[in-house]
Fold each of these.
Amino acid sequence: MLQVQHFQLIQRKDNRVLVEDLSFVVNDGEKVAIIGEEGDGKSSLLRWIENPAHIESYAEASGTCTVTGLVGYLSQELAEEEREIPVCEWLDAACGVESPSYAAIARTAKMLSLDPALLWETRSLGSLSGGERIKVQLASLLLRDCDILLLDEPSNDLDLMTVRWLESFLQRTDKTVLYVSHDELLLERTARAVIHLEQVRRKTISRATFSRKPYRQYIEERSASFAHQAQVAQFEQKEFREKKDRYLSIYNAVDAAQRNLSRRDPSTGRLLKKKMHTVQSLGRRLEKEQESLTETPEAEWAILPKIEDGVFVPNGRTVLDLRLDRLCIGDRVLAEPIRLNVRGPERVCIIGQNGCGKSTFLKRIERELIGRTDLSVGYMPQAYDDAFEPDDTPITFLAPNGDKASVTKARLYLGSMKYTTDEMEHSVRALSGGQRAKLLLLRLILQRNNVWILDEPTRNFSPLSAPAVRTLFASFPGTIIAVSHDRKMLREVATAVYRMDETGLFPVDRDEI
């Protein structure tokens, strides 16, 4: 069992309350998802439960946490020093004093669709693909036989096969699991309860909700409740305005009569004075009535800027006609041969198992297109740190020249995506993964790129933001070439899907995904 009482989280950087007075109980075997927009404290809540010391450098937390059983934590990102550790040494250290047996490792690797030899590798964790790193971390938790699993974005870098395994694992395991995920289908199929963290009124008020309902039911009932409340509020406001208009009409008429009253008519004056008292009493009742009106519901809705006019790729224009005898990393052949033809305004998505070379292929495509004078190419890497300088802030990243017009435009766009004034000046590296993903997306828009090369673009957007992101991608009048394992993106955005393996690149029926 896991019990949290009166949890409060304050961000030290700008003294902003992220979570206030959150209490909940997770029963044995429950699967509870933490949802919320980017930067609302989801990962920090998991880190605090695992060890309060892990967030002391950037946040102040209070509250109590009671845990029964062994806790295992899977971080969203490895620390720099952890990335240098050989896989075999890291696994030994993670599993504790007694090293796991070969049989246990082989059994766990099979569950993860992982080559057991990888768990004895002397290669560093940082040299593995993102999906391989996640699998190694999951393997350590399974080998330790943890009772409570705290998983921070476990599906982020997994291929489709392993995401399906993760779904199956969460559905059938008797372990207690508290997790953050941006995969909507995973949440719909596994989460039996929800912790929802929100920042409303331009991030000045925090709100936390615990609901022991499945994810889809919670979202649908919440949306229906908000729609009903908005309808009731609109009706009451309309009725109130009509009452207020009638009141003002009567008040103004009595007031005008009093001002125009002759001093020779005291009896009429007394009647008007009495009537004014009655009208003023009505006004006080209206003030009290206004306080009790149903409020228009507030929610942290996702907002994304629109693509500017004139950014498009003409229908049928050849964007890419790439033919490779083989795709390699050093002496290692990843795939051979590869053929890919893309025309405007297609949206092509590439899938494949972790480590098959999809990111390498995207970088090869970027090199192929970057010199084209008839195209404006933008690239969103999977490893965000590759795109930022150490001292970047959101403003300097989006307006590197620093001229007034560019800075003003950057602030306008950041504000539209709910960055606070303080967050615009924060170090990019101090922002959440989702906030950095928004910056990379904003750069594509501000640079007016008409060809977007995207490596796992939705992996760090919250499930509440993701529908808006998919709508933006689906309506993009340019060309998109992306690697993605987001099943909703593959079905709702892609006009063509290709599977990559060692034998090449092959079209896939989206209905089979």
Amino acid sequence: MESKKRLFSIVEWFVILLLIVFLFLLAIKTRDKLSAVKDMVSMEESKLVLYQGPKSLRDATKEDLKAAKEKDRDFSLLHCTDTIVKVNGYDSYVYDTNVNHSRTWATDYMPVQSRTPITYFDFQGQANIEVTVEDIELASVKISPQSIELEPLIDRDNNKVSFTITEPGNYTVTFNDSPARALHIFANPLETNVPSPEDEGVVFIGPGEWNIESIMLEDNQTLYISGGAVIHGVVNADHAKNVKVLGRGIIDGSGYKTWGGSSAHIPLKFDNCNNVELRDVIVLNPNAWVLNSLSTKNEIIDGVRIISSRPNGDGITLQSCENVTVENCFVRSWDDSLVVKNYVGDSKNIIFKNNQLWTDFAQSMEIGFETNKGNKKEAIISDITFEDIIVLNNFHKPVISLHNGDDALIKDIVFKNITVENAQMGSGDGDVMPYLIDLYITENPNWSTSKDRGQIRNVLIDGVTVLAGKFAPSRIEGYDEAHTVEDVTIRNVEILGDKIRSFEQGKFQIDTESTKNLVIE
């Protein structure tokens, strides 16, 4: 009898154990189903808009991808064929544009150039991105900005990378820690308030490839460039008010020969204008400067994407402008990325905020050298702010620079929350100014106009983080005892994991005779 009870007890416990295991497995399966349902709901809530590129663009061949001078190969914007991008399972059209990996000035204006892929789309919710790079053996993959902390899934056997984004923005995928063939992804929010072709004052350009040569905007006009459109030419305005350039399309300058000191075809140029709005367009292959405003007031530059590769390919240049906001932009340039200069009058109240930079050549954030090209009496550059700037790569000269090459007073300047993901200052002929921070008063035969020198006053640099690359020196130097750099506060600087608490630790080169009231915290 006892043995029967014992046997029953064992069987009973065995059944209970099986039941527990069953319930556990059921819970896991239920969790996975709920997770799948959650993903499904998320996908159902997501929206995606893709733009087919012009069918007239030629497919890039392996020959097109070889590094060469502009005169030795086709410089056109092409359809990329070696990088395939899928978003939520759908093909996203990829363009092949020109970039420049040389770090030395080309006196013939013909540096050796390469190519890199870009793609763009609009979305809301979630975008699952899969990238296939047929000709790259994947050892490592980095997605920038690194602050997003995206961990890519790498399929080395099939040369694939996949990751998910939930916020619109500018993303760069770098393969094997090399700038070569880095993929730029411009993920826009869904487009709203699209103008109609019938609206008064609207110049509407639909999808396709268009040779426009030049569009001159007049008062109260809006140029709208549709997603999927590529226009070859320039957009200008002079002494106009209330003008806009909007849309998802591309302005391409590859048809123009390199500037070479003769004729600059500036894709976006606004002189002596008031109330200017530029949003979301992409600018590729300019033959010189890219976005240039001269003596313009009350301007908004928001979400513009720029890639330049030719000499004098400055990204966004503001000359004697007032009340300008530049935000949410991506600038990859072969010359200064963000620039403020005095050409005719003063410059004041300019804010650069939440921008991403990739500076292949020259400086990332520059004031100068031309600070009084018009020889104005008591010229001033004041109230300029660079805030929340991410520098993906800086290969050549300083990241942060005030270069007073004339007799202006530069004052009330702020650099705040600057992150440098890869600091490579001093590459190529950038060894003449291999600095992280450079505050400098000088006379330069290339850029100085005035006979006298100027001043630099009241500069705040608050929050500079260098994540990788070189521990570069910095410089603070006036011209002489009468032309000085004064009242500079530097704090919250971290270089390669080291918190900088002294000028000596930060490798600052300071001229004590021409500087006063320098503080580092």
Amino acid sequence: MAHRKRRRVRLFFHKIINRITLTALLLLVQLGWLFWMFWQLSQYALWINTALTVVSLVLALHIVRREENPAYKLSWLLVMCVAPLFGLFIYLLFGNKNLSRRLRRKLEAVDRDHPIPVATPIDDACGDLPSRTRATCRYLETHAHAPAFRDTEVRYFPLGDDLYPALLADLETAKHYIFLEYFIIAEGRMLDGVLEVLTRKAAEGVDVRIIYDDLGCEAATPLSFVWEAEKRGIRTLAFNPIVPLVSIVMNHRDHRKITVIDGRVAYTGGINIADEYINQKVRFGHWKDTGVRLCGPAAHSFAVMFLNLWNALRPTETDYAPFLPVPTDKVHEAHTSPIVQPYADSPLDDENVGETVYLDILAQAERYVYIFTPYLIIDTEMQSALCCAAKRGVDVRLVVPGIPDKRTAFRLTRSYYGVLMRAGVRIYEYTPGFLHAKSFVADDRIGVVGSVNMDYRSLYLHFECGVLFVGGTAITHLKEDALATMDASHEVTERELSRPKRLWLRLVDAVLRALSPLF
């Protein structure tokens, strides 16, 4: 009895006193101290209060001048108007979209010095495509430095449960290197299985490296993770570590999901390394997520993405030649294989690649566009693109979660239903559980699977990645999965939307929509 009581006490304190709780407390202390300082200064000296108000006004003008999404600017201006002093230091902590100049320069230099090699000119690789689709591929090569590849096999996975065994089998084949880059790496069966293979491979001399996002892993990964991984021979880095009372820019996160094996096999999609993604842990019902496996030349693009970020954080590689894949036989004949374009999206430039790809697919669609997204927190451009496609007769369908992981985000998602459905967009809620997949498929021709959510953070603030593919069996499988998922979902009806809302709920929705870019 006493033993069980002591165990319950230990578990209680483990839940209360952990990394994320301590970090949250320290951040609250930081915010509280800054607020108190501003408040005290404003109370004791009128000129200080006036000076701070002027600074807030100057900052507001600076926000207006910046070349960024108007809705994002409007949200911060609203905060500044309601609470100038509070808005000032909150913007300095969370609203600044620039990384430290030093890290920014490093990332830009590495990307410039180590571009992804172009195997085939875009017009040769995509010459047999319709001109509108070829223009999409040209955009990615020109503005996202993402070359197009033939001779790469694409395998689509409708669930993390299906992807995980294939991932373990591919990890076992590694002879030279394994790179993993994930937003979340959490303790559990999935991580145990991956680490077991990685440990053996590292002992065999394989170069094994991991990049994880410090905020994404805050609640899921113990403080000893880096030490334990390094002890196993796995080189490990945290992206943009959070240091309470020191960290200033916390907006930018590494939201990518990448595994690369010897530059010849790569995985990406929405699946992180955590048990809920393979339904070994129940969170918000059945977890629906998707991913793709690339086997062929296009996989090397992900190796370059990983190495560029690694070298910006810990410069170690000046020559990427050792990481080139060993040449193998072609997977397909050039005229029958799909076009495959892996791409990265960075908040460091003014090119919103993830959003542009989504908008471009909507613009060129003629028959249908089926979309998976866990969050629907969109700007005017995306809303207009969805509505315009539906109004010109395209069958536009959105599948979103039926069970939310974040209630505020879910309420925001539902706030867009009315305007979209009135334009003809059909919306489905995945009733078995939470849908975390991020994908587009259109006209049996073009598709995207990646890490990019349809929300402001993914589209403007995070490091993201995806794969555009044109043709091939993966398009068919993605479409079939979308239709099957819709059959398992509830289609939202006009009658449901017509139910009257209480006044306070309408006010809550209005406030959330006004501040939606900040979520």
